[in-house]
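Subject: M23 family peptidase structure
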Amino acid sequence: MDIERTHSDVVAERREPGARRAALLALATVFLAFSVIWSPLPPPIAAGDDTQAADAALPADAPWIWPVEGARTMTAPFRAPAHRYGPGHRGMDITASGPLRSPASGVVAFRGTVVDRGVLTIDHGDGYIITLEPVTSALTPGDVVEAGQVIAEASAGGHALPGTVHVGVRLEGEYVNPRPLFGDMPRAILYPCCDGE
């Protein structure tokens, strides 16, 4: 039996399991990184697709009523993401202060705080769900609302600029451009150009 073991022999024996563990962890990390890199992404969504989907399947009670009365300005338009989880703007922001109206009849699906802002979600049927934020509301889930009924007050918080409200619409679970759902959409006017050139 060899009793002449040195301190460095003992330390080396003790480090060996740790070294194996570290090597296995490094190998697992490399494997995970490569599997993420080579995993397929969902197919991209063309920016026009969501607008066309909303135009093609307008709800029976379209056009909807604007949530704000009087003059309004769109401060941030809908921007479709390149893929389901990509960056974009899944709705539109419009100037708003004071009371907000339900764009169509429906049932309150959610009212509460999400992160730092009040959110109100209404199911309008036919697969259409609208979300307004930031808002304060006394409604509760299950409350029935009518088109034009005051449903909330514009408030502050979230990504929307002060004095604006975010209007998001989902159709069958997918975000769509809400703009075509509302009335008085201005039409493009094309003017002649360039004196016959």
